[in-house]
Fold each of these.
Amino acid sequence: MSKINLDSLLSQNASHMRPSPARSILSGLNIEELISFGGGYPNPDTFPVDDLKRIVDRLLRESPSISLQYGPTEGDPNLREELAKRYYSQGVDITKEDIAITTSSQQAIDLCSKIFINRGDTVVCSLPSYFGALQSFWFWGGVPVGVADENSLESTIIKLIEEDRKPKFIYSIPDFQNPSGITLTLAQRENIIRVAQLYDLIIIEDSPYRELRYSGDDLPTLLSMDRERVILLGTFSKTLTPGFRLGWVVANPSILSRIVVAKQSTDLCASVFDQAIAARYLRDGLFESNLVKTIELYRGKRELMLECFKRYMPKCVSWTVPEGGLFLFVTLPVRYNATDVLKLTLIEDLAFIPGEIFFCNGEGKNTMRINFSYAQNEKIEKGVKILASAINRVVSTTHIPL
Amino acid sequence: MSKINLDSLLSQNASHMRPSPARSILSGLNIEELISFGGGYPNPDTFPVDDLKRIVDRLLRESPSISLQYGPTEGDPNLREELAKRYYSQGVDITKEDIAITTSSQQAIDLCSKIFINRGDTVVCSLPSYFGALQSFWFWGGVPVGVADENSLESTIIKLIEEDRKPKFIYSIPDFQNPSGITLTLAQRENIIRVAQLYDLIIIEDSPYRELRYSGDDLPTLLSMDRERVILLGTFSKTLTPGFRLGWVVANPSILSRIVVAKQSTDLCASVFDQAIAARYLRDGLFESNLVKTIELYRGKRELMLECFKRYMPKCVSWTVPEGGLFLFVTLPVRYNATDVLKLTLIEDLAFIPGEIFFCNGEGKNTMRINFSYAQNEKIEKGVKILASAINRVVSTTHIPL
């Protein structure tokens, strides 16, 4: 058996891959004892276990030969129908023909990268932005350009065009952004649409958290403001279960057909079984009632987390107050490093994600993303105490050069 | 709402995509009446519906918070453990660390393309070969070079090297190949390994049908002959259910780790729920007993199909006699076109796949792939009659220039 010369065989693509640092932070920890403010995990109490049991039982009695067979690449027609009805009831006038099901919305992001990005192409995103999206852009050879302030979106795009680096698309998470927790105002949404139309850009509206609003009023989706150039990505991961790996894309037919062909050679179709379960879950009206309970639970956790932050955090720390979603974003004075804080909290089994990974330009060393949906309530208070004490230690021991 | 200029925004990748012609052949047909010799569909009678019902019920009672949550990219540890045990019992000495779970083996093929193929790279495959693999190679800008006769494998590779087009890997389906139904002999397997070692090539051993042997004796997997450079791809699609979209990769650690990172930005992980079901299904020993029943069923269908072929086919037609798997491959005299035959059979609701799509060099117009696993027995006989009569009509009406 001869030894392989792997380096000479790997593709350029393989050399552009960046593994997720979050995974290495979380691996090797004592999971039993762990207080996780880390992942974007939904709380297991929100999983509708009994409803799913009943649905699977009925499904396997009534239509096993469909739900266990291959299915169409664009997804289960019943599921697409149910999703379309939901959007329609929310004032977005679409049919199932406008929707394709993907294997998680991560795959939807990756398929968009696949069909739009040539090596070296720029794409515009927020600073900070979702790491999984950056990872996909990088993989395809894209160059994400971060916009820290929504007001500088147009000037950033003008500058890129002047440098002959016109972006392919704007990637945005308008509602309760990951990692910042921030929601775009109506004026900011109108501005994104105006800029995209003026400079002929696609907008990818990543919308995993939109349904999880705990205060304030819904604002229109970008999709509803421009059906032609906005691609909306949705997911069941935060509102039903991430275990199914089911997401979806809403886009105009010429874009959607390309996404479907790109998906075909990727995995043929998403889990047909899980799609059939999700379709029945929606059809039976179970989604809405479970969503109400989920919002209730998360609203309480957000309140508790914010209270604990107010009570325990040192004065020099600031944080966002999200109207929904799963995250607070925390900022230390610029000279302090969140990774130093993490080293201390991990000793006491508290994990969070240093904000740096969400900054495509390498900034954000003094920031951290704090998830409030997953941890049990007693662990939230305990965790914030540990975090505050670790920050205090880093602040008091960091040597600041004069 | 301004009109989008999509062509200027799409990537080169998007222009390399080829949709599956099989899909368009099969769409729009009367599914109720259809006799399908088309897809590579397992027979629904093989789906272990009652076992799955029991497993899901127990799973959702005992560990819902794990099976409905996010999971590791490399897959459910229990499932990887069960798969490793199975290989071990078959004489392949691997552990779960050598296995990663993918969202179908189509995804495994695509991830291999992703990490090995640069635009313009050649890869060597059989002539004919699985269309989904060709589709993925093309998408990544690969140039599949087909080898019609296993004896010309080495000379093809020498020629490519002389032309400075050394292939990245050999893609092979050694057992009951798709579409040909042919199984490589031991000498042919040894030759592939020798050639790969001599010229430092990877081998992708696509192995979806291996468990489905109806006659003859098992031959060693390529993997067992070289653990360093063979990547074996497996799947539950033909032996449990394609509805779960679960496949796996066995490879050496340096390759496997790249596949896992490549998967991370693709869809994070395969359906955690379906993986948990499959793991219990294996652990409870249900896989083996269902496999025995499946082999029994398909052996009968193969016999029936071959009998009907002998009885009804005109003399000028030849076909392969597969020892396992799902397909016969049928050859008409070179001057006749299988697509002309298909046009006639579709009128009578019989579908099959013209063999041309499996030939990366555009040949094979006179061939067809015939699936025998899906159709009910009475439809097999009816379908072969329709097929034979359509072939007779094409043969008698095709104008052959002198």
Amino acid sequence: MATGAIHDPAPTRGARRRAQTRARLIEAGRTLFARQGVDATAIAEITEQADVGFGSFYNHFSSKEEIVDVVVSESLEAQGRIVDEITAHLSDPAEVVAVAHRYFVMKSRSDPILGWLLVRLDVSHRVMTRALGERARRDLDRGIASGRFEVADADVAFLDTAGALLLVMRAVLDGDLGADADRRHAEGLLRILGLTGADAQAVAERPLPPVDSPRDATLEP
Amino acid sequence: MATGAIHDPAPTRGARRRAQTRARLIEAGRTLFARQGVDATAIAEITEQADVGFGSFYNHFSSKEEIVDVVVSESLEAQGRIVDEITAHLSDPAEVVAVAHRYFVMKSRSDPILGWLLVRLDVSHRVMTRALGERARRDLDRGIASGRFEVADADVAFLDTAGALLLVMRAVLDGDLGADADRRHAEGLLRILGLTGADAQAVAERPLPPVDSPRDATLEP
């Protein structure tokens, strides 16, 4: 937006060090939030784990909430890109949405650390409106534009499907749902989007596209 | 469950005082959480507002979270009873569920304090499985037993509808949805439960039963 800026100059040594410190803090935060939860993690533990001085934290983040937000946003962006890849070749908008939702339900089982971060609604509401929310909304709008989806109000339909996903993920994290939770949830969400029961079931039962990323190998059914 | 206990003896003076102090703390908590939010409320403020000594708090609650839980549970129990009353004469299970969901969406608009307490997922997940969750599950099971609802998995359908409601309430609290959000959400949830689009729309558009309680007069459409 700055009209005078053509491109960034090469970063100075100070700027590079600053970026490295920030990256170390984020990685330390991710590790600690994963291991012991957000609430139990003190800023001093993050700086200790990152091997930087306590005061440096505040050169990069104003609060623990801010680094939580960054960790979650970066994770979501990475997950969003994976889902984009595995759904790229699908021509049915209903299948795209079903696969995306099934991915996150199954991910809650295979990567509970990410799952727990996502279902903390105070955090997830903000991030939902960013990385994942934009993608989900794009997929929803495509289906509406093509006539595959039929909803009275796209905003409410978006929230209905996102909220349903969050609570199903939460129940998977609690160990309360069986192995077919992803398909049963996909069926329900496709009904919200106007598919008949039989159509929703058929799309929800389609085999998942392969997930190439090795770290997501646990998602294979 | 205590086999020897026929009935409770008349409470002693000490027990009555204890109950009064507890009630004062709960009322103070409700007022303060409503006015300034849970996070901004210190235990010392609750005891000050209740006009009891700071230490007394811990005779009744082990932590702030515990009193939050009690305040929310009592509010939910009261709301659950209101919804039971206004839906008691309805014969269509679909209308019962639609009215209950519409009530909570509209309530988020008319009573944002209650709304915010409910959508704090860390709290609401626990309470959802109690007062409101039991009622919602009962209504869902009735509709399934009568053949009005048709779902592949009742547990997942329950979570889909509850999660959808929470996120719609959250958006209403943020001022992001229009006045028909309750009807549009009811339509989506009835689709999850197997109603066709036209049927879901018709049920969601039915006039709400009158809400007698004066404090809920603001819910009238």
